[in-house]
């Protein structure tokens, strides 16, 4: 069975490191997923960014929101969640850090603690 194609949404201003960790896990030999694309990587005109994000979300099988302290109010994440909903993509959230209290992103699915067994189960 082919790996699931995942679009990773994250707060670009605060949580780039969690995106790198997810990409690293996607490259493990027993990974059931590949990262199709991630949130905005560089400054881009609004229209261009939204178009590229929507196309990447369309190519994905599932959208994973990596949650940090401010993700629930990150404008780009909120737009990507809406795009995922508009495209009918399954979506879930993963807390990107070990400690702390985190607020779920509105309308972005269930919130999970991050562990390799959990990711493998969710993306199998």
From TrEMBL:
One Pfam family from the record: ThsB_TIR
Domain Thoeris protein ThsB TIR-like: 7-94
Protein name (Swiss-Prot/TrEMBL): TIR domain-containing protein
């Amino acid at each position: 069975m082919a790996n699931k194609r995942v679009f990773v949404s994250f707060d670009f201003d605060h949580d780039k490191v969690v995106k790198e960790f997810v990409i690293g896990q996607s490259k493990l030999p027993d990974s059931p997923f590949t990262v199709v694309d991630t949130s905005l990587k560089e400054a881009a005109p609004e229209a261009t960014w939204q178009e590229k994000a929507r196309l990447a979300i369309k190519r994905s099988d599932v959208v994973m929101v990596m949650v940090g302290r401010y993700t629930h109010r990150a404008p780009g994440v909120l737009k990507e969640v809406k795009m995922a909903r508009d495209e009918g993509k399954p979506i879930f959230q993963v807390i990107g850090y070990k400690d702390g209290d985190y607020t779920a992103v509105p309308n972005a699915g269930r919130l999970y603690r991050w562990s390799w067994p959990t990711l493998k189960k969710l993306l199998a």
